[in-house]
Amino acid sequence: PGGEMVERAAVGRFIGVGLELGGKDPAYVRKDANLQHAIETITDGAIFNTGQSCCGIERVYVDESVFDEFVEGVVALANSYKLGRPDDPDTNLGPLVKAGAAEFVRGQIDEAVAAGAKALVDADKYEANQTGTPYLAPQVLVDVDHSMRVMTEESFGPVIGIMSVSGDEEAIKLMNDSEFGLTAAVFTQDENAAIEIGNQIDTGTWFMNRCDYLDPALAWTGVKNSGRGCTLSSIGFEHMTRPKSYHLKTV
Questions:
Q1: What is the pLDDT of residues 86-95, one digit of tens each?
Q2: For the chain, what is the domain count?
Q3: Which position among 4, 7, 20, 64 bears the catalytic label?
């Protein structure tokens, strides 16, 4: 809605706009992935800054042959976070921006569980996890699908939905089944396979073996409802400036 308001305000005023809007960024873990690296990177990519990152991982697709081991590792890491006040030096998971944001994510989780998803983290063990506050426990969900808001609607909180897939074809289909297209991540040791998958993913950026990351030398852009325009790289400067030509002839 905010981006649409900006665009409407610019209509008829000859003002160019660059809009980075929402995201529901996916990660895919192939059976040949370095599993420990994938577990650590994806968990951090989903929970860092309490999930409040424009390119944070919000949904994960894992090859069925490594699904159980991956989920076990992610749950163990999620359980290691300490939720609390930012001024507590032991805290590594702080509050969301406001209580309403936490309630929004909590609502997504509750709806998913009511529809058959399994929550693998005991949120009650986190004393700070209280309704009406911006504090929300990390959560890992399995038995999820794309009928659930938590797998299709931007969460912007510390929740990870994980689905098992049969292979590349199913993973690509599910990653593209989104109104958003900011980033996507593929975890594999096969660079050629990663590039082939990346070519089929409808996002502005795709990663191999990393996520939730910016490189100032690379164009940062999105497709579909993730926005339009570009920042970073030389292309980003071109988007926010205008060319001026100097045409001289000496006589």
A1: 999 999 999 9
A2: 1
A3: 20
